[in-house]
Structure formats: C-alpha cells, structure tokens
User: What shape does this take?
Amino acid sequence: QPAPPPHYWPHARGHVGSYGTTPSAGPVDLNASFAWSFHHPAGRYHTVMLGGAVIDREKNIYVATTLGIFKLSPTGDVRWHYNQHGDMSTVPSLMGDVLYGSTIVGWYF
Assistant: This one.
C-alpha cells in the first residue's frame, strides 16, 4: 500500500530539512486571495494565536491559541476545538495522522 501524501505544513516551521521554505508558490495579490477569516468564538481579542498554523494533507488548518487548538476546514469552518490542560506556548506538530503538543504545565497530547 503506498504511503499517504505528506502534510503541507506539518510543523511550526514547515518540513524537517527545509524549515521556512515551501515548493508551493504563494498568491501574487494577497488582498485579492483572502477567502475567509477566523476569530475566536468568544471574541476577536479573547486569546492569543501562537506562531503559525499547521496544515495537513487535506488542507485542514490547525490554529493554536493560548486557550486551545482549533481545526479549521479549508473553507474556514471549525471542525473541532480542543481545550488542553493549561496554557500553551508552542505550536503543535503533525506526525502521520496524529497531532502532538504540550502545555506549559507539563500536559502532553
């Protein structure tokens, strides 16, 4: 059975060995390319976003905040929200089909 395709952006800095770079071309006009935006359901300034997003092979986007992680569909719909035990200070990582992360109080998920 063939291996699944790689994730688009599995770690905070991209792919191991090529951190911060991607073979994908970005849009020429960023303002014209925005299709949706995301704000915390409790209010725009309710939490702080941590670093960059993580993007899986199906183009779902994982946004880490100090109060939890949101999985967003490619169209911006919230697929799920995870409230971890304690504040986070780092962006989680995707390995295979699992999202790994930790909190500042020592909880790992």
Summary: The chain has one helix and six strands. Strands lie at 54-55, 61-65, 68-72, 78-82, 93-95, 98-100.
